[in-house]
Amino acid sequence: MSRILSAVAWPYANGPRHIGHVAGFGIPSDVFSRYMRMAGHDVLMVSGTDEHGTPILVQADKEGVTAQELADRYNRVIVEDLTQLGLSYDLFTRTTTRNHYAVVQEMFRTVHKNGYMVERTTMGAVSPSTGRTLPDRYIEGTCPICGYDGARGDQCDNCGNQLDAIELKNPRSRINGETPKFVESEHFFLDLPAFVDALGDWLRTRTEWRPNVLKFSLNLLDDVRPRAMTRDIDWGIPVPLDGWEQNPNKRLYVWFDAVIGYLSASIEWARRTGDPEAWRQFWNDTDARSYYFMGKDNITFHSQIWPAELLGYAGRGSKGGAPGPYGLLNLPTEVVSSEFLNVEGKQFSTSRGLVILVRDMLARYQPDALRYYISVAGPETQDVDFTWAEFKRRTNDELVAGWGNLVNRTASMVHKNFGEIPAPGPRLAVDEALTAEITTAFGRVGDLVGTHRQRQALQEAMRVVGEANRYVSETEPWKLRGDRERLATVLHTTTQAVSDLNTLLAPFLPHSAQAVHEALGGTGTFSPQPRIEEVTDLDDDTRHYPVITGDYRSVRGTWQPRAVVPGTKVDKPTPVFTKLDDAIVEEELERLRQS
Questions:
Q1: What is the DSSP letter of 553?
Q2: Hey, which family's this protein in (predicted)?
Q3: Which range has the worst mean pLDDT, 243-247, 389-393, 503-507?
């Protein structure tokens, strides 16, 4: 058994999330975490809503509410959506907790004490019409390096280089299009050049990362400059230093505090379980492993900024230093980045209405249908296009006609002929072959999920589903009514196959896994689901908020064949999956056109 930290990117709480978001951070992390628990590992899956920064202020102004009120509203929306999708967090919290503030400020103080926070005078952008500071991510222009028109003030997504907003050619505000004014301002910068050697040494040991992620991360080291970690803004975590903490218009950069959320959420989880030091098993134990899940636009923050913060806290940069009370914190074992999910040939765009919200999707379709599509056809290593025609095809041809049909006809034949799982008679070579094929699939599918090749893993599991359907067609149990012993053997073999295939598919399809378990006469929880709990802030009893949590211990060590029990009653089944009408394609395309 190993301890596994599943660190999942924090969805931003300025609005509801769309399916492109969960394709990057949500479903891949949940499939991995569920599999790792079933394989016998001790998993801690954490995340929460990211609630600081200018976009929250901008959206709050539009809606006529305070930043905290806006964050409260969308925190709850996101919690409800992710719970319904079945994401099995041990704790999904938020960045406006007092616990998070305390952890972030401790990280800053120690990194500063070790000499890696450098105070500088810089040129900050201000809106001429409002006087409000414009964060670098809210300024666009032409990249001075590659010429891409659409680079942001902090980095160019086209060439990947770090930028300063003042370097952009023809800069403009993303809020109202005006040309920003640049004024002098004092800020703290994370001294990234002091970590170049340490980051390089670490990255060159990450040989099992996805090649595109590792190459991008190594290329970042070619142009490393200090990066501002404070902002001129009144919404965020105060800078915990005398002369700064009392300034209402200076706050820590949202990306400094957001990545620390993985640590603060782990600490909050430990405190809520009654063992305040339990988080150290996942962060201080060098044998523990940590996997960070996100979309490709966040690689920089997880393979450079966050590791640099961890190194600075430990005093492992070129300036030396000593770790603070959290001790030596593990660097990421792997940064698992997905590419982008587009829709009908275009990029998702909330501002243009080109969006499929998670909650709208789940209101009309089964959550496992969405999970299946993203797992088998999602943006694992390249950008992919979500189309409604392909969603309908995969749901009907693969889930319904393939897996659902196998489950339904197996349970139907068992119920009709025996009413219970029959005891097998002598087994023939064809029976042994199917059983052996499925037994060995546990190793193949597990290895693929464990190395973040989930598309291949699901394709392999569904290939074996095809083998089981072929077995039923070849043995023709409907023709064996005159040979009860052979019929019992075939149906026992088929029932065993469905049971084991259900285990193989459970990380991908947790909702239907429970239904299949019950269709074969199973009782109790086969596939545990997350739940929402209303909690009180650990350090401020006036604040209350929802968290996602759950008890997933029952599945630990279940990634293996488990013999079905003859005599188990099997009732007449109902279909596990809903077949989609052809009309839904045009209906959904019309929704997109109208939005």
A1: G
A2: Belongs to the class-I aminoacyl-tRNA synthetase family. MetG type 1 subfamily.
A3: 243-247
Binding residues for ATP: 350
Torsion of CA 302, 306, 310, 311, to 10 degrees: 90
Q: Is the model's pLDDT at 350 over the cut of 90?
A: no
pLDDT of 195 over the 80 cut? yes
Q: Is the dihedral of CA 283, 288, 289, 294 positive or negative?
A: negative
Work out the average pLDDT over 371-386.
Answer: 95
Task: Measure the CA–CA gap between 234 and 251, rounded to whole angstroms.
Answer: 7
How far apart CA 56 and CA 353 sit, in angstroms, is: 19
* DSSP state at residue 399: I
Annotated binding site for Zn(2+): 143, 146, 156, 159
- Which has the closest alpha carbon to 301: 368, 238, 254, 263? 254
Helix axes 405-417, 484-505, angle to 10 degrees: 150
Task: Output the six-digit token pair for 26.
Answer: 């949500």
pLDDT confidence of 134, banded at 50, 70, 90?
Answer: confident
pLDDT of residue 133: 77
List of E strands, 2-94: 3-8, 42-49, 91-94
The reported pLDDT for the residue numbered 126 is 87
- What b-and-e string marks burial along 149-166, b requiring 16 or more CB atoms within 10 Å of the CB? eebbbbbbeeebbbbbbb
Over residues 523-563, the pLDDT tens digits come to 999 999 999 999 999 999 999 999 999 999 999 999 999 99
Q: How far is CA 126 from CA 166, 175, 563, in A?
A: 11, 12, 67
- The annotation places the binding site at 143, 146, 156, 159, 350
**For residue 281, with 0-12 CB atoms within 10 Å meaning exposed, 13-18 middle and 19 or more buried, which class applies?**
middle
Adjacent-strand bridge partners of 293 = 8, 336
Name the phi and psi angles at 121, rounded to 5: -95, 130
Cα–Cα distance between 68 and 53 in angstroms, integer?
12
Tell me which residue has tokens 């620390």: 260
pLDDT digits (tens, 9 = 90+) for 391-410: 999 999 999 999 999 999 99
Distances (CA, A) of 104 to 90, 95, 234, 260, 436: 21, 10, 17, 6, 52
286: CB partners within 8 A, 6+ apart? 330
pLDDT digits (tens, 9 = 90+) for 408-441: 999 999 999 999 999 999 999 999 999 999 999 9
